[in-house]
Specification:
Elements (H helix, E strand, L loop, with lengths): L2 H23 L3 H22 L4 H11 L3 H8 L3 H9 L6 H11 L7
Helix pairs in contact: 1-2, 3-5, 4-5
Amino acid sequence: MDSEASEPAEHYRKQATRLRRMSLFLGGAELKASLRAAARMYEGFAQKLEDKMDAQAMKAWRARLGVTQEKAAKALGVTRRVVAGWESGLTPIPKITEHATWAIDQGHRLPS
């Protein structure tokens, strides 16, 4: 696991555990379901932080958005050649880029 990602991922996992425990002790089916859903969301955040984006995932991300390497590069603040390097597998994809792709997937707009 990447040490850069381990601390935030651990935080999200602890939050998920707390939420699951709360769901055991608090009443109301709707509240329990909401707490369990929130716990799953936090687990997803932790997993995303631990996952490594590879060339295939970068290509899939760009294809899902339906953008060219040039447009993806602009959104990520790099050149088209950098995106091409990531997609070819010749250049490792920085964690910050993984976070940026996730933010774009969540509907956040990056500064252009």
